[in-house]
Amino acid sequence: MNFLAGLRPAGALLALATIALATIALPASRATAQVDCNRLAAQIASLGHSASSSRAAAAANRQQSEIARLSAHANSIGCNRPHFLFFDDRPRQCDGLNARIQGMRANLAQMQRAAYGGGGTRRQLQEQYDAYCRGGRRNPDFLERLFGGRDEIVYPPASGLDETPVEPQDTTPRGGSEAICVRTCDGSFFPISYSARRANLSDLQEMCTALCPAAEVKLFTRAPRDMKTAVSIDGEAYTNLENAFKYEKTVVPQCSCRKPGQSWAEALVDA
């Protein structure tokens, strides 16, 4: 460090700071990034609260058990055997079963994200919101801590929602290309076709009934993975059902696709 001997005190400190910055990997200061407080607040709200997370976890566990049981039945009747372009010796109900299992797995992934994926993220977003959107001051960077540096920037609190009037949008459910079977006693559902056409809706309704024979099941169509757009073949919106999304909140006794004590093989014998 002899090269520092000829420097003035301020120059020596600056040289030391330069050396430190060259040898230490410093994380980028959060304060240097533009913070959108309204977006942060919306993200925090979208993650929900612990009570809803607990309900989502319970629903995910039930869904996982249902997938395991249905997969075991599909394998037991040979649905896991390979099939070829010109011939397929698998049972005819395999396509419907596999489509249902695939849809249930997609729903399970969404449930698990809702139940387990938001905890740490929510805390991080809340800390960031508290630091930058409630009039708090940003953290000083390395040079500011070393020299006592510049005036600190005070971030203003998040502004309210845009007061500009917004034209109302038509949110009427209009269905879509994906056909799903909805169990009316608890609002649960599973997909059976991703390219539904008006000509084959009656066949799809029969398939819904065959795959869930112990409960009332109705055929709906929706835009891919968007239940808010779901409409029955009679024109009834899913969101208007008495038990819409009820399966996410509670277990409905006696609401099952199988009769008590019945195996999947017995329940789907006519599928």
Structural account:
Mean pLDDT is 71; it is low at 20-33 and 141-163. The chain is an alpha+beta fold and 271 residues long. The protein has helices at residues 9-23, 37-46, 50-76, 94-116, 119-133, 142-147, 201-211, 264-267, and strands at residues 178-183, 189-193, 217-223, 226-232. A four-stranded antiparallel sheet has the order 2-1-3-4. Strand 1 and strand 2 form a beta hairpin. It has two domains: 35-80 and 90-138; 175-271, no CATH class.
Question: In terms of topology, how is this protein built?
Answer:
Layout: H1 9-23, H2 37-46, H3 50-76, H4 94-116, H5 119-133, H6 142-147, E1 178-183, E2 189-193, H7 201-211, E3 217-223, E4 226-232, H8 264-267
Antiparallel strand pairs: 1-2, 1-3, 3-4
Helix pairs in contact: 2-5, 3-4
Return the average pLDDT rounded to an integer.
71
The neighbouring-strand order within the major sheet is: 2-1-3-4
How many β-strands, per DSSP? 4
Range of helix content = 40-55%
Measured distance between first and last alpha carbons? 84 Å
Strand-and-helix sequence, N→C? HHHHHHEEHEEH
Quickly give the structural class: alpha+beta
> Main beta sheet: strand number and arrangement?
4 strands, antiparallel
Share of β-strand residues = 5-15%
What is the overall shape? globular
Could you list the spans in which at least 5 consecutive residues all have pLDDT below 50? 20-33, 141-163
Number of helices: 8
Give the number of domains: 2
Provide the gyration radius in Å: 29 Å
